[in-house]
Structures are given as C-alpha cells and as structure tokens.
Amino acid sequence: MAPLPGAELVQRPLQLYRYLLRCCQQLPTKGIQQHYKHAVRQSFRVHSDEDNPERIQQIIKRAIEDADWIMNKVGAWPLGSACELG
C-alpha cells in the first residue's frame, strides 16, 4: 500500500491531521481504521500545547514516516489476517 500523495506539502499541524485521517481511510478494515484514527486523535491531544516550530516540524516529519510505515505494513498483510491487529 503506497503512501498518499501530498505528504511533501504538509507543513502545519492541521494539514498533518487531515493527511493522517486520509491515510486511515485507506486501511483495509474498519477496525484498523478506527484504531489508527483514535491514535491520531490522541497524539494530537498530547502535542496540542507544542509551540516550538522546530519541534513541530520534527513531529510532522516523524508522523509522516510512521504513517508510511504503517500503510506499507498493513498493505502487505492478507486481508484475513489484518483482523488480528487488535
């Protein structure tokens, strides 16, 4: 499963949030989608008070890398075993 186009355009937290939710929609099952949407929301709550622009860019870069890894990992599974994610 390839990452979504547009990752290179993400510069602000709201753009990242939207990008990550679009990535979640590409995941194979509703359960996996809900799991990662919840993780995205939790992460945004945790980092909502971050005001250092350099740190924000680090978070954005890492979140995109993590999303790409997850998309590739989940995309490589047969659909039946994807339900084992928990």
From TrEMBL:
It comes from Gorilla gorilla gorilla (Western lowland gorilla). Residues 11-68 form the Complex 1 LYR protein domain. Belongs to the complex I LYR family. LYRM9 subfamily. This is LYR motif-containing protein 9. Signal peptide: none annotated.
